[in-house]
Amino acid sequence: MEGYIRLWRSLADSPVWTCSTANQKVVLITILLHVRWDSILWDVLGKEFTIGPGEMFTSIRKLADMAGVTQRVVRTALDRFESVNFLTRKVTHQGMLISVVNWGKYQGLRGSGDTPSDTKKTRRGHTHDTPKPKKDTTIRKKVPQESKEGKKVRNIYSEISTFAGSNDELKTALTDWADMRKKLRKPLTERALNLNLKKLHEMTNGNERMMIEIVNQSVMNSWQGFFPVKKQAAFTSKMEETAKMFEEINRRRGIDDSEPEDFNAADFPF
Q1: Distance between CA atoms of 103 and 114, rounded to whole angstroms?
Q2: Contact predicate 226/215, CB 8 Å
Q3: Based on the domain organization, do 101 and 153 belong to the same domain?
Q4: What residues does 50 pair with on adjacent strands?
Q5: What torsion, rounded to 10 degrees, do the Cα atoms 219, 84, 12, 60 define?
Q6: Annotated region Disordered: where (predicted)?
Q7: C-alpha dist (Å) from residue 9 to 35, 41, 58, 153, 236
Q8: Could you give the angle at the alpha carbon of 92 between the alpha carbons of 87 and 95, nearest 5°?
Q9: Could you tell me if 223 and 181 are in contact, meaning their C-beta atoms sit under 8 angstroms apart?
Q10: Per the structure, how many domains does the chain have?
């Protein structure tokens, strides 16, 4: 296999990377390395179809072998990547077609200057340069642009939605926490959100029920960050102390049944 792919540093701050396990990250990189750069005609049991850029036709077993992980890890990784809209997949009896969403955007195919035609030596199989787009002469009405603050807020809630996936309870808890931060005049930045989400995932090892408890704890206490849910040690100690008192009462009552004259209420600590 020749050539290269672009791996943007911004991926390190994205939930698709920060909230994935080490094995899931291996699967992610393996997919990026093996999807097609250009279109190819594929044949499965006599039926032809085209595999386009950013796509690959494979199977759970084959992908597991390429990544060096178990098939269970691959299934879990694909479920997660699909839930955060990183990829889509079509499953057939002969295998599955994986499509990386926004592949062209990630590889800079729509930009200018550094296009596939500028890197012929690493992309064999390209026989002509990418055609230049025609100048758009369409007259369009001016649309009011969204303010930077509005765009920032929209991105925050979009990241929360992506992180929570289909878990509406987790999404609601995180949204309440973000709203609480805003009321405290400590609004979240995208980087602060991603760092907190990464910490939340690491503390719970991906357990969404524990995540909900931790986030709700921060909302109730107006905490700006996330902290483990701690047992009430003082309450537990008090309960143990109370239990010992009742044991003492029962012991003394046993003595009182045989010698009632020795009973003295002042001996009890309450």
Answers
A1: 16
A2: yes
A3: no
A4: 41
A5: 130
A6: 109-150
A7: 20, 33, 27, 22, 47
A8: 75
A9: no
A10: 3
- Spatial neighbors of 165 by CB under 8 A, at least 6 apart, are 80, 83, 84
Structural domain contains residue 92: yes
Is there a domain that residue 254 lies in? yes
Residue carrying structure tokens 């949204």? 175
**Domain limits at 239?**
233-267
Report the predicted TM-score, pTM, of the whole model to 2 decimal places. 0.41
Q: Are 88 and 138 in contact (CB under 8 A)?
A: no
Residue type, 88: T
Question: Tens place of pLDDT for every residue, the chain, 270 residues?
Answer: 677 888 888 888 888 898 999 999 999 999 999 998 888 887 766 678 788 898 999 999 999 999 999 999 999 999 999 999 999 999 888 889 999 998 887 777 654 334 344 444 444 444 444 455 566 666 666 656 656 676 778 888 888 988 988 899 999 999 999 999 999 999 999 899 999 999 999 989 989 999 999 999 999 999 999 999 875 444 555 667 777 888 888 788 775 444 455 555 555 554
Letter for the amino acid at 161? S
Q: Record the tokens describing residue 195, joined without a space.
A: 């760092």
Q: How many CB atoms lie within 10 A of CB 6?
A: 10
Give me 118's structure tokens.
């500028």
User: CA dihedral defined by 124, 129, 131, 133, rounded to 10 degrees?
Assistant: 90
In a domain, 226, yes or no: no
